[in-house]
Amino acid sequence: MTQIELARKEIVSDEMQFIAAREGVDSQKILEAVAAGHLVIPANVNHLKKTLEPMAIGVAVRCKINANIGNSAVTSHVEEEIEKLHHAVHYGADTVMDLSTGGDIDKIRTAIIDASPVPIGTVPIYQLVQNLDGQIEDMTPQMFLDMAEHQAKQGVDYFTLHAGVLLEHLPLTVNRVTGIVSRGGALMGQWMIAHREQNPIYTHFDEFCEIMRQYDVTWSLGDGLRPGSLADASDDAQFAELKTIGELVLRARANGCQAMVEGPGHIPLDEIQMNVEKQIELCDRAPFYTLGPLVTDIAPGYDHITSAIGAAMIGWHGASMLCYVTPKEHLGLPNAEDVKQGVIAYKIAAHAADVARHRKGARDRDDALSHARYTFDWKQQFALSLDPETARSMHDETLPQDVFKSAEFCSMCGPRFCSMRISEDLRKMDPVAISELVDAAKV
User: Fold this and answer.
1) d(CA 271, CA 323)
2) Whole-model pTM above 0.70?
3) Pseudo-torsion of CA 64, 245, 280, 29, nearest 10°?
4) 352-399: per-residue pLDDT in tens?
């Protein structure tokens, strides 16, 4: 049985117990959330046999982040993708998506799954299109089902499938500034126009569920009509698809499958809360997995920052997993350093969301680091930081000698102007003397 079927029978699986211990949450709470479909555990039975450490996505647990890796037809190979995977996991990615679109995709994916302790997601249509030499029009529904089964057997833990993009939604995108920015959504649109037929994932949804249930692959219902610019945010196309996705969430659960919902890419700050509330309403509180969102369109090269701002906000308001954006977004295929920068930015965003949600223990690390900062415990500051190597190297750039690892100042203030040292000196003053100073000031 799948995790949701076990939970409905009130059976606490080994995976649920593992997650409860890791999250510091009662196992009964995990079971109830999984049974309701408000929490998913992406854990393909074939990946569990290898390297997977179970994790959960939903508002009952801490906010998660995903890192996208994968090659293109232009660049990258197996070794580079494994390096990206290691960077992503080392710096804190909770899941990784293999979005490879070129080369030996099976070889790359097998290597990634075999090396990954975190769940792996894919967009099956990418490999299908590569097999068809880019001719999506030649695809048949059976080819798509076969590809889903092929990747499920490999051990993929969740599929992004753009089942909610319907033929009747396409006219709603005509007047958009950036049209359809999702590759999967655009490919489905191209196929539907060529065949004058409805989306085959939608029409064969129960058959996809049958395959995914067999391996316990989680649905990640793709937002093929997500806005790719602020100008297109929260439009009729986006919400028409979201309504359809909400219906498919219920169908997936009825078929014994877990499902989460992908969310928008570019949303202004003042529309973020409304987007979360809309998703909760239409999708029966299925975990919300969002790309950013980017809150401005003016910063190519810095979109890990523009999107992390939106990610922290949407995580606070109820998103369950944040898909990272790297500095290369809109510009090129990210390398290992870009992966690191994206993961760090999103770990900050997810942690900020957990603090804002008042998750139990979420602020413990912040408070410990603040104490270490006040007591000039530099080594503890480094150890508690998200990226100890960078924190240490920045400190040592101007004060590299070991003696400065215990100095009560840094190079910014120097030995005479450190506010925290001055503050500590004030604390050491005679309380009577301080009281006299206060009384004198009142006079």
Assistant:
1) 19
2) yes
3) -60
4) 999 999 999 999 999 999 999 999 999 999 999 999 999 999 999 888
